[in-house]
Specification:
Number of helices of chain B: 3
Largest sheet of chain B: 6 strands, antiparallel, barrel
Helix content of chain B: 25-40%
Radius of gyration of chain B: 25 Å
Number of strands of chain A: 0
Distance between the termini of chain A: 25 Å
CATH class of chain A: Mainly Alpha
Order of helices and strands of chain A: HHHHHHH
Strand order of the largest sheet of chain B: 1-2-5-4-3-12
Number of strands of chain B: 12
Oligomer: heterodimer
Number of domains of chain A: 1
Chain lengths: 176, 285
């Protein structure tokens, strides 16, 4: 339970960073999608259920400040978290390529779907422009931010667990 | 093995359940705001104070940085400015006389409705839209401070946008440069009507569209365009920007071109909200 509370705090922190600092660190009007990083990281490090949990709340918050339908980002983020959870324990936690690829794929799909909903259906057919000017730069920027932050997540992830004593005991027994 | 099997299934079921929940959310928010508003109020109660804090930290940091950088420059500048003060004092006296004359002329032409006279209140921008597609932003005043939907927002003498959503302690402003934002406008001197609309594909140039000028008229680069009298939500006479490259359309009936907004949207920090609404104004009159 404490772990979930910790994750919610991280989500809120990232959300606040996204909507306040986002414009300040934007390059060419493009800001990284900080919130899509969370379901991937937690899904990859802790399994599908965690990924879906984080994805749902991160997406819900994202929807509240974006001008789209409530629940759309939550839906996509949940699937991204689930996808990341598939690779849980298949690779070393410190392996960075797998989550990076999931972030690229997830962000592309998410932004492409929002393009379809927000623009394509309003007869804005300039697909190449939107992909090259908005989607790809955002993917790359998000990927860079992820690479910079991943060590921090690796360090933080077990710390979320420490507060929960029962789990720590289990963990120790298994190790010994 | 058995445990793994059940785990696999349980997360699959969770996925289905959560997906269904999301679809219900989407379907509901498509038709009504009832679900969104209480959720937003709960979240904003937590997040808006954090946003304000972040904002102050950011301002404090940039302030400190700027101060360090500019001390030496300011010393030089101070000398020059002192000289300028002297010459400006002289000029000011002259301009004051002009102002008296202007006031008299304004009364003469009954320009009371100029937007300098609208009741306004200042607000600070504390957040932006979380996606890259839109340029809506959040300000730190809400229904508690008397904000209402459809109030006009200005900054630096030009139109910024309109309030589209009001929470207890925040409001969301939709800017005129945003894709899908429309405003009825007119040329300040001749009163020829046109429509101003934002376009995301012009973002890099910092321009927006201006359309539906009648074909007979001449629009020069730099002509001032203001909100029109016939606009439903915008108060008349607020400067939007300056015309650029207006040419005749292929249909030969209308002219269209671009508009350079009067407001620098990149570096917006504070805005003024006009607390008078168009309908309310008409109701009084």
């Amino acid at each position: 339970m404490k772990r979930k509370a910790g994750e919610l705090l991280i989500i809120i922190l990232f959300y606040v960073l996204q909507i306040t600092l986002g414009r300040a660190i934007s390059i060419g009007g493009i800001m990284p999608n900080l919130l899509v990083i969370l379901p991937v990281v937690f899904g990859y490090l802790n399994g599908k259920n965690e990924g879906m949990f984080v994805g749902f709340f991160a997406g819900l918050l994202y929807d509240l400040s974006a001008s789209s339908l409530l629940g759309f980002s939550a839906l996509v983020f949940v699937y991204i978290g689930y996808l990341a959870g598939i690779f849980y324990r298949r690779y070393e936690g410190s392996e960075m390529i797998i989550p990076l690829v999931i972030i690229f794929a997830g962000d592309f799909i998410f932004e492409f779907l929002s393009y379809v909903g927000n623009f394509l259906l309003h007869n804005r057919l300039n697909l190449i422009y939107f992909i090259t000017r908005f989607i790809i730069p955002e993917m790359i920027y998000t990927g860079i931010v992820f690479v910079l932050l991943y060590k921090l997540f690796l360090w933080l992830n077990p710390h979320l667990e420490v507060r929960n004593k029962r789990r720590v005991n289990n963990f120790d027994e298994r190790n010994i | 093995m058995r445990k793994k099997f059940s785990e696999f299934f349980s997360s699959k079921y969770i996925l289905i359940a959560v997906s269904a929940l999301c679809v219900i959310f989407i379907a509901t928010s498509f038709f009504t705001d009832r679900l969104v508003t209480p959720l937003k109020n709960v979240v904003s109660a937590v997040v808006v104070p954090l946003q304000k804090g972040m904002n102050y930290i950011g301002l404090w940091a940039t302030d400190g940085y700027d101060r360090l950088q500019e001390v030496s420059r300011l010393l030089d500048e101070n000398e020059k400015l002192n000289e300028q003060v002297n010459s400006l004092t002289e000029e000011n006296n002259r301009l004051k006389q002009d102002t008296y004359e202007l006031d008299r002329l304004r009364e003469l032409y009954e320009l009371d409705a100029k937007y300098a006279d609208y009741p306004k209140t200042g607000a600070r921008i504390i957040g932006t839209s979380s996606d890259n597609w839109y340029s809506t932003f959040t300000i730190d005043k809400g229904s508690d401070d008397g904000m209402e939907v459809d109030m006009n927002v200005i900054a630096g003498g030009g139109l910024v946008g309109i309030i589209t959503e009001v929470g207890k302690n925040y409001s969301v402003v939709k800017s005129i440069i945003e894709d899908g934002s429309y405003a009825s406008a007119q040329l300040i001197d001749t009163g020829d009507v046109c429509t101003v609309s934002g376009d995301i594909e012009l973002m890099d140039e910092g321009l927006i569209h201006v359309q539906y000028f009648k074909s007979g008229i001449t629009v020069r680069n730099g002509d001032k365009i203001v909100t029109s009298n016939i606009s439903e939500k915008y108060l008349p006479g607020i400067l939007i920007g300056y015309a650029k490259d207006v040419t005749t359309d292929a249909n030969n009936l209308t002219q269209s071109g671009y508009l350079v907004p009067a407001v620098d949207f990149e570096h917006l920090q504070e805005v003024l909200v006009i607390t008078q609404k168009k309908e309310a104004k008409e109701a009084i009159e």
